[in-house]
Write a structure and sequence with these properties.
Blueprint (H helix, E strand, L loop, with lengths): L30 E5 L10 H10 L4 E3 L5 H6 L6 E6 L4 H6 L1 H11 L8 E7 L11 H17 L7 E3 L1 E3 L5 H7 L14 E3 L7 E2 L1 H18 L3 E4 L2 H7 L6 H4 L8 E2 L6 E2 L2 H15 L7 E6 L14 H16 L13 E5 L33 H10 L19 E4 L5 H12 L21 H15 L13 E4 L7
Parallel strand pairs: 1-2, 1-13, 2-3, 3-4, 4-5, 6-9, 9-12, 12-13
Antiparallel strand pairs: 7-8, 10-11, 14-15
Helix pairs in contact: 4-5, 5-7, 6-8, 13-14
The protein binds 2-acetamido-2-deoxy-beta-D-glucopyranose (NAG) (3 copies).
Organism: Rehmannia glutinosa
Keywords: Disulfide bond, Glycosidase, Hydrolase, Signal
Pfam family, one: X8
């Protein structure tokens, strides 16, 4: 893969259509939404959050569950909500429509339409879910839709599922590279190829079992594909070849020309999005729309998280908002305004993982801005008049490679404790456990100790080998020799 240097400044100020009486999935100027995550113990109560969102002019919000206090707080707010059925419920939702009937009855119908639920995200990034819930995805989506039809709300609520995008996991992959197989090439979770954008294609093993049926469903029901896109991950995994300007929408030069069609890319975000459009086109789905269900840039990070700082976060999110509000789509679909949900509303202090994970917020829990960017056309006009977005040279960082350490399981802890810690690491902990799932490269030896070592080390590396990240209540310890997991 090859990337280039860039800079762009799409300073466009257009009218942001504030439609509150229709479902404004794609207004003429593109739409900006925000993910409202709540993995924190210091956030304001939901009614205050709704006031904050309204004061910011935000009309679209995505949440990660169907929490009743949150859903109630959005009642009569005029804000459109995307809610979620968590991965843990996918197998039940897939198994039986009576489950989804009940789920809709208790989680949607009591609130909708006073709380304007416009979409249900069924699962989240299931292709990288350590439990591999992939096979439940489409049946669960169908059952949810059938239940919505049954209760006569299917015309106002669409069903989709956020997918992990092309390059997002290179960061996880890089940080969890373990030597189960030397030089293990872990493929990106969704796309087989993503560069140049026009050659985008889905991973072949996902196409027949899940991608095609899902796109069929989306096409038939008038839904859209949800994609989580993080140029940040691609940038930190490839900072030697991707310029910061290209990652931050600051391309000022000639852009990166796609040799297959001559289209010019001035940002990694657009290239990532078009790779998914191209992949859909291969399967004949030329009219399915994409909503970027998560994207963002952290304002702080560990030493090895290159570029995670407030200046870059403000540049990424601010330039993205201007880009979206310009109403111009991507090079492959220029007439299709972008619809994007920023990640996230608040810094969330209970998110595990590297420091960046707790620093994606636009706001601190006390509702002060982490940095000042426009979120609406009005805001972007004021900002544009006041000051052009910052343009700095590439910031220079060095990644320390000395003193490499690894984390392994402590057999003495016993299987039960190891299993609990393993479940945590692969679940909430966010370790990359794909390679220890049945059939994957590091599944054998299939022992709790071996799997735990793999998972603990992934967690440890992802957390920047921070102190306390290789402990798991005594179930793990640090080693200075690269371990083998075979
Ligand atoms: C996950 O499940 C899907 C469908 O059941 C399968 O095609 C895929 O290979 C699985 N992935 C892994 C890593 O086991
Ligand atoms: C970016 O473009 C503007 C306008 O074309 C020009 O004035 C400026 O010097 C350029 N900056 C860089 C770093 O190339
Ligand atoms: C998408 O839906 C439209 C309208 O129902 C249909 O004509 C078209 O064939 C579908 N596309 C694919 C690739 O199935």
């Amino acid at each position: 893969m090859e990337f280039h240097k860039h800079l762009s400044n799409t300073l466009c100020t257009f009218i942001f259509l504030l439609i509150t009486s229709l479902i404004p999935v794609f207004s003429d100027s593109g739409t900006i939404g925000v993910n409202y995550g709540r993995l924190a113990n210091d956030l304001p109560p939901p009614p205050q959050v709704v006031q904050l969102l309204k004061a910011q002019g935000i009309t679209k919000v995505k949440i990660f569950d169907t929490d009743s206090t949150v859903l109630s707080a959005f009642s009569d707010s005029g804000i459109f909500l995307t809610v979620a059925l968590p991965n843990e419920q996918l197998s039940s939702a897939a198994a039986d429509q009576s489950f989804t009937d009940t789920w809709i009855q208790s989680n949607i119908l009591p609130y909708h339409p006073n709380t304007r639920i416009e979409a249900i995200a069924v699962g989240n990034e299931v292709f990288v879910d350590p439990q591999n819930t992939t096979k439940f995805l489409v049946p669960a989506m169908r059952n949810i839709h059938a239940s919505l039809l049954k209760y006569d709300v299917a015309s106002s609520i669409i069903v989709s599922s956020p997918l992990p995008s092309a390059l997002q996991n290179q960061w996880r992959i890089q940080n969890s590279k373990m030597g189960c197989t030397p030089n293990d090439q872990v493929a990106p979770p969704l796309l087989q190829t993503s560069y140049p954008a026009s050659s985008g294609s889905f991973k072949p093993d996902l196409v027949e079992p899940v991608i095609k049926p899902m796109l069929d469903f989306i096409n038939q029901t008038g839904s859209y594909l949800m994609v989580n896109a993080y140029p940040f991950f691609a940038y930190i995994a490839n900072s030697d070849t991707i310029s910061l300007d290209y990652a931050l929408f600051r391309d000022n030069n000639s852009g990166d020309v796609d040799p297959n069609n001559g289209l010019v890319y001035k940002s990694l975000f657009e290239a990532q999005t078009d790779a998914v459009f191209a992949a859909m086109a291969v399967l004949g789905f030329n009219n399915v729309k994409i909503v970027i269900s998560e994207t963002g840039w952290p304002s702080d990070g560990d030493e090895n998280e290159i570029g995670a700082n407030a200046e870059n976060a403000a540049a990424y999110n601010g330039n993205l908002v201007r880009r979206v509000l310009s109403g111009v789509g991507t090079p492959l679909r220029p007439n299709e305004p972008l619809s994007v949900y920023l990640f996230a509303l608040f810094n969330e202090n209970e998110k595990p993982g590297p420091t960046s994970e707790r620093n994606y917020g636009l706001f601190y829990p006390n509702q002060q801005k982490v940095y000042d960017i426009p979120l609406t056309a009005e805001g972007s006009e004021i900002q544009a008049a006041a000051a052009p977005p910052p343009r700095g040279g590439d910031l220079e960082y060095t990644v320390s490679k000395v003193g490499m350490t690894w984390c392994v399981a402590n057999e003495q802890a016993g299987e039960m404790r190891l299993q609990m810690a393993l479940d945590y690491a692969c679940g909430k902990g966010g370790a990359d456990c794909r390679q220890i799932m049945p059939g994957a490269t590091c599944y054998d030896p299939n022992t709790v100790v071996a799997h735990a070592s793999y998972a603990f080390n992934s967690y440890y590396q992802r957390n920047g080998r921070g102190s306390g990240t290789c402990d798991f209540g005594g179930a793990a310890y640090v080693v200075t020799q690269r371990p083998s997991f075979q």
